[in-house]
Amino acid sequence: MADYILAIDQGTTSSRAIVFDKRGSIVSTGQLEHEQIFPKAGWVEHDPKEIWRNTGEVIGQALGKANLTRHDIAAVGITNQRETAVVWDRTTGEPVYNAIVWQDTRTQSIVDRLAADGGVERFKQQVGLPLATYFSGTKIVWILENVPGAREKAEAGDLLFGTTDTWVLWNLTGGVDGGVHATDVTNASRTMFMDLETLQWDDEILAAFGVPRSMLPEIRSSSEVYGVANEHSLLRETPIAGILGDQQAATFGQAAFEAGEAKNTYGTGNFLIFNTGEEIVHSKNGLLTTVGYKLGDQPVHYALEGSIAVTGSLIQWLRDNLGIISSAAEVETLAKSVDDNGGAYFVPAFSGLFAPYWRPDARGALVGLTRYVNKGHIARAALEAIAFQTRDVVEAVNADAGIDLTELRVDGGATANDTLLQFQADILGVPVVRPVVAETTALGAAYAAGLAVGFWADLDDLAKNWQEDRRWTPSMDDAEQARLVRNWKKAVTKTLDWVDDDVL
Ligand SMILES: Nc1ncnc2c1ncn2[C@@H]1O[C@H](COP(=O)(O)OP(=O)(O)O)[C@@H](O)[C@H]1O
Ligand SMILES: O=P(O)(O)OC[C@H](O)CO
Asked: Is 491 strand, coil or helix?
């Protein structure tokens, strides 16, 4: 058998291809950022064709750097930014509109309309999610209602919907020439349309949204052969054998396979996933219920999730919108130029507040300002905001699960930041642990693909690959921790009730 697995990680800011060996070590990487399109306040789009072009290029980069060909690749795994909705014409392969990204809040009026009949909890028992702009469902509705001709074409069966896993899979397996239109249970669980018990699309919910079932991909497990790459791909004939939404993939890559295990990923947003095993747990504290993974015919694993919309993207905002840093890494140097936050608290409710608050009416606020506060304090407040938001989510997990997490496994781009992770340990009061392979998202997709084709034998085989790289131990005294948390919670209250009909 070939010696490597290739994972495609189609993320919010970039697309990557990463080649892994049997030990789960990175052999080579290709990466390209794509344009973030902000047509109006609150709107966020990507160009699906740019994403597909970049995917092809990064595959070439990753193979080229390691001098590999398709013959060296045993299988391909796909992982992706979740919820982001692409709708395209099945006969031409052309998207009818840009991808509407998970952070986009334009569909609030559609949410309100659907909620009129029973509040945002209307479908929650069945799908595990509150009605919110975050999930794919209302984004599809927006496209059907706002793109000329889309509704008619969809009713005629000519349009397909997919999250970006499906978009990549369909194109990779041939597109208009017989592309496979499928997704996995984890991605399907983020649409609002999948019943958590049956793991199938629910016709009543689809009728309530007015979305034709013919647009939707087939729901498959996270680890099985979906198809092979088509003849135009560098990977032609290679099986595509794993799909997981990126946060579930990171959980899998962290080897958090069993109930009670968790991870927190620090990327564009932060996402804490807590494995609840074969049990569907409904949160009383603002967490989502989602699918963790499903390997072929084996039982499904569910999870609780704390999704935070803005964390790493706040650092990008300091770089791109304020210009006070020139790279994300520089935020650490700037934050270290001061001893503390100088009294400033930054609540980045740029897309409203996600877990555990779910307040679409919130908008960002920087509070506690005096003439003393300088850009170092603002950088510090931004990093602290990432950790405070995570603490809010950990509190919710502990309350729902009736436990106290004793340590937090972390990964993602922002875990390169030592100051952030020390503050995270301090404000949580438990150790924070980072594995050697911080690219756990791609690794999880590689694992799912490798299991399906026998490259790895079983979960024990994978768990052996997990290795600790570094650990941050709490050192803040309790009184200081309590003071900071109290001020943070006060700052959160200042962001609420901001959006009304007159304000974007
Ligand atoms: N040293 C750093 N300190 C803080 N944030 C960082 C640092 N390096 C990268 N980031 C943030 O991490 C994010 C990128 O992480 P990544 O895991 O690649 O994200 P994604 O998968 O969401 O595209 C960016 O939002 C960036 O601002
Ligand atoms: O692409 P990321 O890492 O920002 O992840 C996005 C999440 O999947 C959104 O739910």
From this structure: helix
CB of 31 closer than 6 angstroms to any ligand 1 atom = no
Averaged pLDDT for residues 286-291:
95
* Helix (H), strand (E) at residue 23: none
CA-nearest residue for atom 9, ligand 2, is 82
Q: Are 303 and 273 in contact (CB under 8 A)?
A: yes
Strands 45-46 and 99-100, bridge-based pairing: antiparallel
Mutate to test the pocket of ligand 2, among 247, 291, 410 (most ligand atoms within 8 A of CB): 247
201: which DSSP letter?
B
Cis peptide before 348 (omega within 30 of 0): no
The answer to whether 85 touches 154, Cβ cutoff 8 Å, is no
Number of the ligand closest to the Cα of 83: 2
Q: Which two tokens stand for residue 368?
A: 């506690």
Dihedral over Cα of 152, 158, 159, 162: its sign = positive
- With a 6 A CB cut-off, is 416 part of the ligand 1 pocket? yes
From the list 160, 153, 158, the residue with the least C-alpha distance to 87 is: 160
Say yes or no: ipTM exceeds 0.90: yes
Cα distance between residue 329 and residue 37, in whole Å: 23
Q: What is the pLDDT of residue 299?
A: 96
Q: Which residues are annotated as a binding site for ATP?
A: 12-14, 268, 312, 316, 413
Structural Rg of the chain based on CA atoms: 22
**Measured CA angle at 410 (ends 407, 415), to 5 deg:** 130
pLDDT tens profile 41-56: 889 999 999 999 999 9
Paired tokens of 279: 């049990």
The token pair at 360 is: 């679409």
Chain-wide mean pLDDT for the chain? 95
Give the DSSP H or E segment for 239: strand 239-245
Helices and strands of the chain, counted as H and E runs: 16, 21
pTM: 0.92
| Nearest-10 crossing angle of helices 375-401, 418-428 | 40
Instruction: With beta carbons less than 8 A apart as the criterion, state whether 436 and 253 touch.
Output: no
- Amino acid 158 reads D
Other Cβ atoms within 10 Å of 477 Cβ, number: 10
Which residue has tokens 């569907």?
280
Atom of ligand 1 nearest to the CA of 416: 1
